[in-house]
Amino acid sequence: MARITAGIATSHVPAIGAAIDNGRTGEDYWKPLFAGYEWVKQYQRQEKPDVVVLVYNDHASAFDMKVIPTFAIGCADEYAIADEGWGPRPVPPVKGHADLAWHIAQCCILDEFDLTIINEMAVDHGLTVPLSLVFGEASEWPARIVPIAVNVVTYPPPSGNRCWLLGEAIARAVESFPEDLNVQVWGTGGMSHQLQGPRAGLINRDWDTAFLDRLTRDPEALRHMPHIEYLREAGSEGIELVMWLIMRGALGPRVKELHRHYHVPASNTAVGHIVLEPEPARKPRR
Ligand code: DHB
Ligand code: FE
Fold first, then answer.
1. Which one, 20, 126, 218, 230, has the greatest CB density within 10 A?
2. DSSP secondary structure string, 19-34?
3. What pLDDT is stored for residue 211 in this prediction?
């Protein structure tokens, strides 16, 4: 059977992608940010996940005001690279796992979680920056990706509790897939940031730190945190953090924190990163 062996979360700041793509990671501004991702790159070389269920948000690259799915699952074999701002990054195309994705879609929908099925979709910095940070530069990504796109751009985003329950449903689906696959679930976006209006540039280190602490030790409190608290404390784009609760819900009640990194500044965003394993550990049969 497939097993979820780890959960990883990271911010997706597009300027990080541009720094990588333009060879600027060694600059004083960027060095401390990238140093905090060395641990996870080494971890991934040992863990060798077969598939990553990658929870992220699109930034009007694949969806726009015409279509706004709250939760969508990519069921394609391959995803093209697109982006706003700096344009499409020069990274390899993202390979999907259509069989597992269709299985997750079927299980979740029959489990009363109506995901939108997407068979053709481009992916932007929301997905590619986490890939670069966690796997490093690659001529081919070392794992297949099942993208789960969440609407956190247009009001109303899903509640934290709904995200948690989706994580649980995804875990039930993955664990009923008959192939022996090492599967990770990633939550991306965040941490505190606001890109617009009079509070643009807002960063809240204390609140971000408490969010990271609670993710490991007191997730029940996070699960029921209202949108208004994200907005007030973490800024308008801080709401991206609800996506981390899909990852956390997929790991079960108890987790072990293996690694954490928090860094400011990165463009306008506080960068957060955490690596969690379910407890007791579920190692792949190999
Ligand atoms: C920035 C952060 C984001 O999450 C995003 O999607 C775009 C820009 C920023 O910090 O510049
Ligand atoms: Fe974003």
1. 126
2. HHHTT-TTSTTTHHHH
3. 98
